[in-house]
Amino acid sequence: MLKSFRIGGIHPPENKLSAGKNIQTAALPKQAVILLGQHIGAPAQAVVNKGDSVKVGTLLAKAGGFVSANIHSSVSGTVAKIDQITDTSGYKRPAIFIDVEGDEWEESIDRSKALKKECTLSDKEIIQRIKDCGIVGLGGATFPTQVKLSPPPGMKASILIINAVECEPYLTSDHQLMMEKTEEILVGIMILKKAIGVEHAVIGIENNKKDAISKMQSLVYSYPGITICPLKVQYPQGGEKQLIDAIIRRQVPSGGLPISTGAVVQNVGTAFAVYEAVQKNKPLFERIVTVTGKS
Question: Is the pTM higher than 0.85?
Answer without folding.
Answer: yes
